[in-house]
Design a protein that fits this description.
Rossmann fold, Dihydrodipicolinate Reductase, domain 2, 8-stranded mixed beta sheet, 6-stranded parallel beta sheet, alpha/beta, about 350 residues, 10 helices, 14 strands, 2 domains
Length: about 350
């Protein structure tokens, strides 16, 4: 007679019930070893509506983040609050022994990041910054194409992410994208995408744990509230290649990454690839499209990765997923990019 093996299911709680919390709650339903059991919001109305929609037990709907963080029925927390609260909640969650998946950016400056990782090193809890495209199968396919010398020596990358916010939102003082205290602005909100992409390609080419880089050109436009509407930079990655990064919350950009090599080009056209995605290949032989199929949707891939890692008692994910080192370097570059523009306006 076979002994029954109990299936491990990671019990998740969400801190903050905004747009990303909705996406998380929908995506987690795809993941076999993860379940949403608890929520917390400073808004009683959000708690009630969200709780009913996703069938959360009344006793596990909390009106303070601390109550959820300290709840013994929760294994892991997803931090979906405003940017300026992330660091404090990561530290509190780590102190409580909770595994952590935090929405990007994990911090709003290098100083916060330093405190976060000092705490993580001491508490030995799992941590992952949720930059979802990095956990999609598309990235492993991209790695194969680069490693197989499909386009020759990498020389340059152009990467952009931009969307147009409705004009009336700019005049709402509390809107997070235009509030300096809340960590608003294009660089902090979406700059992590092109910068983390540059880090990804650099580390495919060079396996050292940390990289040398230099920002050579930084430009941007700040609004009357003191946050950046759009920004551009060039970054030289340790004599490997040059990255051109362009972000905007004022104008819709192409939202793609193009990798230029000595014998061709690769193009990835979605920051949020779904179950079916594509990589365009242009080289000396022919131009064609490589289809990538994923079992999970964009955010479900990240939840699955985090839940698997927690189940295996890992503290961090392996490359090409967002490593702790990637998160450290990412926020360091974002901070320097933003500070350079501010100091040269």
């Amino acid at each position: 007679m076979f002994k029954k093996v109990n299936k491990i299911v990671i019990k998740w709680g969400i801190l903050g019930l905004g747009k990303m919390a909705q996406k998380f709650a929908e995506a987690i339903q795809e993941v076999e070893n993860a379940k949403l059991v608890s929520i917390s919001s400073l808004s009683k109305q959000k708690n009630e509506l969200f709780g009913k929609k996703f069938n959360i037990d009344d006793k596990l709907r909390f009106n303070t983040y601390e109550d959820l963080i300290n709840c013994k029925e929760v294994d892991a927390v997803y931090i979906a609050t405003l940017n300026n609260t992330h660091a404090n909640l990561i530290i509190k969650s780590a102190d409580a022994g909770k595994s952590i998946l935090c929405e990007k950016p994990m911090a709003i400056n290098k100083e916060e990041a330093k405190l976060i990782f000092e705490k993580l090193e001491k508490t030995n809890v799992f941590f992952l910054e949720a930059i979802a495209y990095r956990s999609h199968p598309q990235i492993k396919e991209l790695m194969k194409l680069i490693s197989n010398d499909t386009i020759g020596k990498i020389e340059k990358i152009k990467s952009s992410f931009g969307f147009s916010v409705k004009n009336f939102l700019k005049f709402i003082p509390t809107h997070r994208l235009f509030n300096k205290k809340m960590g608003g602005g294009a660089i902090l909100d979406i700059g992590c995408y092109p910068i983390s992409f540059g880090l990804l390609i650099a580390k495919i080419l060079q396996e050292e744990s940390s990289l040398k880089y230099k920002l050579t050109d930084c430009k941007g436009k700040f609004n009357f509230r003191g946050t950046d509407d759009e920004a551009y930079t060039k970054i030289e990655f340790d004599n490997l290649f040059e990255l051109e990064a362009n972000v905007s919350i004022k104008n819709k950009l192409e939202n793609s990454s193009e990798i230029f090599g000595s014998r061709g080009k690769l193009k990835v056209s979605s920051w949020l690839p779904n179950k079916k995605s594509f990589i365009e290949i242009f080289n000396e032989k022919n131009n064609h499209t490589r289809e990538v199929i994923s079992k999970y949707s964009t955010y479900a891939n990240t939840i699955k990765l985090a839940s698997d890692s927690i189940e295996r008692k890992q503290l961090k994910c392996n490359f090409p997923n967002m490593t702790w080192q990637d998160s450290k370097e990412n926020i360091k570059i974002l901070t320097e990019w933003k500070e350079y523009i501010q100091n040269n306006i």
